[in-house]
Amino acid sequence: MGNNDNTIIQKMMQKNFNRFCEITQSMFSMKHAFYKSLFPTLNDEEIWSKITEDILKRKDNNERPNINS
Amino acid sequence: MKDQTSIPEIVIAISSCLIKSNISFCIAGGIAVSLWGHVRATEDIDIIALLDETNETKFISALQNHFKILPHKEKMLQSTFTPIKRYVIVHNSFHFVIDILLATNDILKHCIQNSKLFSIKDIKIPVINLEDLIVIKCVAGRYQDIADIQALVRGSIPVNKDYIVKQLELLHIPMPEAVTPFILQ
Known about the structure:
The structure holds two protein chains of two kinds.
Chain A: H1 3-38, H2 44-61
Helix pairs in contact in A: 1-2
Chain B: H1 7-20, E1 25-28, H2 29-35, E2 44-49, H3 53-64, E3 68-70, E4 75-77, E5 82-91, E6 94-102, H4 106-113, E7 116-120, E8 123-127, H5 130-140, H6 143-154, H7 161-170, H8 180-184
Helix pairs in contact in B: 1-3, 5-6, 5-7
């Protein structure tokens, strides 16, 4: 890859990274607001713990059976 | 969302801890997909790394300078039998999941060697190459992986499709049907 191409790709990646951070942060904010409405008595630490628990549960169940079989 | 550490700070801090611990790695998963042009949110950070007991201790100790770390069970990625080290890091009550796929096979080692550097805030973060990312996603083959492949192939960055076909042939892994028209067209 030439230097010019590399500069273009770096610029694109930086732009994409900024946008990625914005939307990921917004997603977590929405999750927090949603869980807070479901569990108004929980504090922030407990809310984040619940959100993470659900993320991990979904991640663990989302995997396809072994592809090597 | 109160007192949340910013996402860029988290990504940069984790990468910087890996670099300081002399761990060969590359960023994969949703962050890599976003960097390569299909920008989407993600709930975790996926990393491929050559991790052993010594450098893991260094890494954890470096991480502890930034975050509290919650203990988590090691697991296996069912699609490839790849061991995963999982950490849940906490900063200002915000929790974030780090999955480190241990580069125990040649495909993952190749992904690290073939990675591209992404410069941000004075550090250079290795990111999985676009084609290797697509290959890894063909191997995983979950709904999200297929959607990512379709978006990446249709994206603005030219994809070396021959490389993908060759890599999958080498691995004896069939191309998922849903992506065949995008790769073989």
